[in-house]
Specification:
This protein is of the alpha+beta class and 94 residues long. The chain has two helices and three strands; from the N terminus they run αβββα. The mean pLDDT is 83. One of its GO terms (biological process) is immune response.
Length: 94
């Protein structure tokens, strides 16, 4: 009986030790996204090199992202100039 009790105590200690180790893993508390949350219909005054489509998936909105020397610009895909510009440029991969 004493032997069985010792085995049970050892098993409980082993289980609690494994459970404590698993709870030490860190999980991200906040996932950040880099996306367009608003768009502009204005014509871009910079040289555009390429573009990428962005689908709407909250908080991100549907957009065409144009990449320029000055950075990325979020544009409204329904703007007429955006559709013309897309035909002139290569689409960005990734």
């Amino acid at each position: 009986m004493q032997y069985l009790w010792s085995v049970m105590v050892m098993a409980m200690l082993l289980v609690s030790s494994v459970a404590a180790q698993k709870s030490n893993f860190r999980r991200p508390t906040k996932v950040t996204t880099s996306c367009c949350e608003s768009v502009s219909k204005s014509l871009i005054p910079y040289t555009v090199k390429e573009y990428k489509f962005q689908n709407a998936l909250g908080p991100c909105v549907e957009a065409v992202i144009f990449y320029t020397d000055k950075g990325a610009v979020c544009s409204d895909p329904s703007a007429r100039w955006v559709q013309r510009k897309i035909k002139e440029l290569p689409e960005r991969e990734g």
